Amino acid sequence: MFSKSPAFNLKAVLLETGLAADTLRAWERRYGLPTPNRSAGGHRLYSQYDIETIKWLIARQAEGLSISRAVEMWNEHIASGLDPLAGYTSSSFSSTQTVSANAAPDTTLEMIRAQWITACMNFSESQAEQALNKAFSIYPVESVCMDVLQKGMAEIGGLWYENRATVQQEHFASGLAMRRLDALLSASPTPTRPQTVMIGCPAGEWHTFTTLMLALFLRRRGLNVIYLGANVPAERFEETVSKIKANLVILVAQSLPSAATLQTTAFSLLGLNIPVCYGGRIFILRESLKDYIPGHYLGNSVDASIEQVEKILKGKDKPKETKAISQEYITALHAFTSRRAHIEGTIREMIQPLSVDPEHLNTGITFLGDIIIAALHFGDMEHVTNEMEWLKVLLQSHQRPPEELKEFMNGYFHAVDKHINGSGTPIKAWLRAHANA
After folding, report:
1. Distant-in-sequence, close-in-space partners of 61: CB < 8 Å, separation ≥ 6
2. pLDDT one-digit tens code per residue, 102-141
3. Class of the CATH-defined domain 191-313
4. Looking at the domain that runs over 6-79, which CATH code has it been given?
5. Fold of 96-184
6. How many helices and strands in the chain, by DSSP H and E?
7. 226: which strand partners?
């Protein structure tokens, strides 16, 4: 245990902690931490415990907390009868690996993630927040975001896919995670580097967790990050890039349709001579998509993405050449997009007499239309096959009869044949092969 006997003057404390004198005085005045003794002449005298208190607060700030929240956390420990410095050393927070090796079984990232998931599944916001507070008090902010929040949301998403969690549970967890990331981003330090990075999701992409997490991590590296959020049209990216003179643009897509709108946005930014980076789950699942998008791929993990951004800002990475799709696919894309409303209207007329839930029918029509357009953007209708496999499993998990999908596919084939005929060769070929599968 650290000694509470006064032994250090102000100068010694500042040298030991690296904190500015004005900052230390402001902490003492506003928050009552630390609480040094005074000499007979009124000079502050600090104990080793005071020094370690300062280091503890600095460590919390390094993890993304504001000083006010760090003080609140300190006071919460004290109110619970716990000494925040119990078992603490100045290097305790230097890395996730060091902490994990010494952590109690119920404070490992895996156990905290399990606690957070359980709390979310039970709609217990207080327990979920307690789990996160515990994690952030032990581990670096990047580790908690990736190993608790990101992996936890992925696990809950998997439970939903298997019909073992409700959409309400998934939305509850997502809401808690996003609010925490928002708070961390708001509390992040002022940028210390001159470069400006703009980050957002292209049109049609509403999943912003990864985007917000990247913004947070880059902000914590001192970059000026402009976060645009979800569903940003291509023209808005162009307008904002020109206005703020960004050094780099990052686009994130998670689904096949939003990868297509990302492609459109990336092409629209070429004339501005600004490096464009992109990433997201869909590019891990469909590696060939990267061949048709101009710009720099950020990699298959958040860690890799951060390092790739640093390389690009230093001019140490060049984008690879982009492939072009065939004329046949270009023709099919133009024909399908121009006649899509007519095709989908015909499908509704053809399938209406069947005992298919109208809501499911409309969802299926929109889903298939979106992924057909996206597949045409990337010159390969087999991307639709991959997406349909996902849909088949989802239908099976919800105990829907396979006849529904078969009738739907047959109806779609005849509607495409009726409205675009020879111009939709790739679409018709794919539908013909899969309608009777």
Report:
1. 67, 70, 189
2. 445 567 889 999 999 999 999 999 999 999 988 887 788 8
3. alpha beta
4. 1.10.1660.10
5. 1.10.1240
6. 20, 8
7. 198
Spatial contact of 283 and 342, defined as CB atoms under 8 Å apart = no
- Write phi, then psi, for 7 (nearest 5 degrees): -145, -10
Looking at the DSSP bridge assignments, the partners of residue 297 are 278
Grouping H, G, I as helix, E, B as strand and the rest as coil, residue 276 is: strand
> How many other CB atoms are found less than 10 A from the CB of residue 5?
9
CA distance 244 to 226: 9
Residue 314 phi/psi, 5-degree rounding, is: -90, 0
Angstrom distance (rounded) from CA 181 to CA 173: 13
**Are 92 and 137 within 8 A, CB to CB?**
no
Rg (CA), the chain: 27
pLDDT at 93 (0 to 100): 34
Altogether, the residues listed in the chain come to a count of: 437
For 46, left (φ over 0), alpha (ψ -120 to 50), or beta? beta
Task: Print burial letters for 280-305: b (CB count within 10 Å at least 16), e (below 16).
Answer: bbbbebbeebbebbebbbbbeebeeb
Instruction: Give the Å distances, CA to CA, from 38 to 5, 7, 14, 46, 163.
Output: 12, 11, 17, 9, 64
Strand order in the sheet with 224-232: 224-232, 196-202, 248-252, 276-279, 296-297
pLDDT digits (tens, 9 = 90+) for 383-430: 998 887 766 665 665 566 667 777 778 888 889 989 997 888 999 888
Q: At 208, which amino acid appears? A: T
Higher pLDDT, 376 or 51: 376
Structure tokens at 92: 């305790």
Name the strand (E) or helix (H) holding 204: none
- Please give the backbone phi and psi of residue 46, each rounded to the nearest 5 degrees, phi first: -110, 145
| Domain residue ranges of the chain, discontinuous segments joined by + | 6-79, 96-184, 191-313, 327-435
Secondary structure class of 198 (helix, strand, coil): strand
Which residues on neighbouring strands pair with residue 224, listed in sequence order? 196
Strand partners, 277: 250, 296
